[in-house]
Amino acid sequence: MTTTRQKSSSGGQQHFTIDLLPSRSENLGIITLNRPAALNALSLDMIRSLNHILPQFRSDETLHATLFEGCHTGKRSVFCSGGDVKSVYMSGKGLSNTEDSVPSDQHGYGAPSLETADFFREEYQMNHLIATQPERCPQISIWDGVVMGGGAGISVHGKYRVATENTLFAMPETGIGLFPDVGSMYWLPRLEGGLGTYIALTGARLKADDLMYAGLATHYVPSSKLMELRDALVAATAIASSGDNEGNDTDVNDNVHVHVGGIEGVLASFAEDIDTTNSLLATNRGFIDKSFSFEKKSSVEEIVESLHLLSSSSSSSDACDSTEFSRKTLDTIHKMSPTSLKVTFEGIRRGAELLDVASVLKMEYRMVQGFMRENSDFYEGIRAVLVDKDHKPKWSPGKLAEVTDDVVASFFESLGDNELVFPEDTNDYAASKL
Description:
The protein has about 425 residues and is of the alpha/beta class. The protein is built from 17 helices and ten strands. The strands form two sheets. Strands 1-2-3-4-6-8-10 form a seven-stranded mixed beta sheet, with helices on both faces. A three-stranded parallel beta sheet has the order 5-7-9. Strand 3 (about 30-35), helix 1 and strand 4 (about 65-70) form a beta-alpha-beta unit. Helix 2 (about 85-90) packs across helix 16 (about 375-385), helix 6 (about 195-200) packs across helix 11 and helix 6 (about 195-200) packs antiparallel against helix 14. It is globular. About 50% of the residues are buried.
């Protein structure tokens, strides 16, 4: 089957970068992340390209599905390692080569033309496009390799997420002085028990069995079958298209069911069962629920206290398991930004009460702008992990008790005229597919 490059037929400025390759095969729209040297991290150019391509895919009623995949060199499998936050750091520190230097105290309030604002505004608008895709054109994301941060944002809101034996999923933002964003404050609190809070606060590295257990991945397919799966998806969209023309009296909803049913059938035929009983999340589920359920714990301090109690237990074999798990978890949490931990926990609590992804993304935009302000832990976290790479961040404040309720509340304050908004024409579509 031939594959042709998708071309724009709409007006306005076009955004194209070789780091993101749109194409079409039969009636399958394909997005290939093509930045393997940077682990397919999303740059602002890639985000802008997606914001140009996705509405075209959305309006093309001959497309029956979209496929997101990552290009890799063969040395390491990668879907998308997140957003290019180092570039955002450079902007906030006045070190960017692509924009005029701006005083650092002007960052963090959503002002247009600053990358510290534009990057997240446009990324969240793109996340919303994915979360509100029409039912007739479901998205399939191939999680073959690393999936972190922004990589979750371009996939978890789609209908299907396919894990492989190479999948490594994480939301590591509290370790860089940020929080799990890209709509994560919507889906994290909707995971069962304490799973969402645990994933958010600890940045836990999850494999395919964890993702199937938690319901984050919808299918497990061995990587050796991915090319065959891709061809079958292309063929399924072609078959669905030929069915559209069999009669003029076919109901539109019937065609939607044909398209989606064909995709679901293909995925089901390639999917394999995977044992989740020994996964990290399943093995430690009781301890996770006891310590991390935001319905049971009202603060990060209570979570830490619960972990301390579990780490000192020693009266049974279960207690021994909980002791080691709790100690490792405590060690991890103590490395994270106290501010990030508290703001993340509050975001999860608030996100659980919001009804759709759009409302959550608007809240997250306020939150992320708080982290873009001068002397935020974000700049220290990126310095330690991505710039100097000493992995020894000096958080300020350095203790949970020093992060007051007023400090946390400041991350949720209105940005006035700079609030996040979405195009009106996307408001009629359904909420997230998760």
